[in-house]
Design goal:
Blueprint lengths: L6 H41 L4 E2 H4 L14 E8 L5 E8 L2 E12 L4 E9 L12 E9 L21 H7 L8 E8 L22 H53 L25
Parallel strand pairs: 1-2, 5-7
Antiparallel strand pairs: 2-4, 2-6, 3-4, 4-5, 6-7
Helix pairs in contact: 1-4
């Protein structure tokens, strides 16, 4: 830890932090560009769509088209106010209320649910006349089934569940509903607030910009990794240097001691050397 708090390493830490902040910000910027590009592409595709008769976009009892969400359509028929229902717990401009959904019986006899508007009080939901009307709007897929535990009052349904409506309405049913944007002639009361079609959301992103974002974040992670590795190596080198210095002194001392004789001094015997025993020859 002493190595970390030296001026050199503190300065390097500040530089690494600044680099990481910059890289993370650049990655977030690239991610927003990726999402914005996807939304712009979706918006361009939607703007290129031309309003078509409903039968040219989808048919009753057929699967909802892959590009059908938000497609502008028009359809002629008569509202069936007797089967109108309200969808509770919907929010518009911060106000909680009800969607007003009315089946439209088209000229061929099939039925398509039409979201005509929004009310805060169920009593404000008018029942349209059974006159011929042309509805302009945008297509939307059906909603998930209602999973609430509370039993709803009569005339209300938790969601626009087309599987439930298919069991309630005997006519052929379009597998979608319409966000009404206009009527010719207008038959809906002005007490109903207009419900705008859903806003565009990017279900996908621009993969190239997403790759750039990931690249910046990898750079930031690599900078942190290199800083920690260099700091670890420097701390180990400092510890090893101290150990070598202490060991060298001991070795030197051992060498000096080993140079002198540490055993007992040699002794010289004072006893006389044994006489040279020689056998003289005797002459006879």
């Amino acid at each position: 830890m002493r190595t970390l708090f030296t001026p050199r390493w503190l300065a390097l830490l500040g530089a690494v932090v600044a680099v990481c902040v910059a890289f993370v910000w650049l990655g977030l910027w690239q991610l927003s560009v990726a999402q914005h590009s996807a939304i712009e592409e979706l918006q361009a595709q939607r703007d290129a769509l031309v309003e078509k008769p409903l039968d040219e976009v989808m048919a009753p009892h057929s699967a909802f088209p892959q590009d059908g969400a938000g497609h502008p359509v028009r359809v002629e028929g008569q509202y069936d106010g007797a089967r109108q229902f309200l969808v509770p717990d919907r929010v518009l401009d911060g106000q909680r209320g009800f969607w007003v959904v009315t089946p439209l019986v088209v000229d061929g006899g099939a039925v398509v649910p039409v979201l005509r508007g929004f009310v805060m009080d169920p009593a404000e939901a008018d029942v349209p006349p059974a006159d011929a009307v042309t509805v302009h709007g945008e297509l939307a897929p059906g909603e998930s089934p209602y999973l609430g535990e509370d039993t709803l009052p009569e005339g209300q349904q938790g969601t626009i569940d087309l599987s439930l409506l298919a069991n309630l309405w005997p006519e052929p049913l379009y597998n979608g509903f319409i966000f009404s944007t206009a009527e010719e002639p207008p038959v809906t009361s002005t007490a109903l607030a207009h419900v705008p079609p859903p806003q565009l959301t990017a279900g996908d992103v621009d993969w190239r910009n997403l790759g750039y974002a990931l690249q910046w974040w990898v750079f930031a992670a690599f900078a942190v990794f290199m800083y920690l590795k260099l700091l670890h190596d420097a701390a180990r080198g400092r510890g090893a240097g101290g150990a070598d210095t202490g060991g060298g002194a001991d070795t030197g001392g051992a060498a000096d001691t080993g140079g002198a004789r540490t055993g007992p001094p040699p002794t010289v015997s004072s006893a006389p050397a044994p006489a040279d025993e020689r056998i003289e020859s005797h002459h006879v």
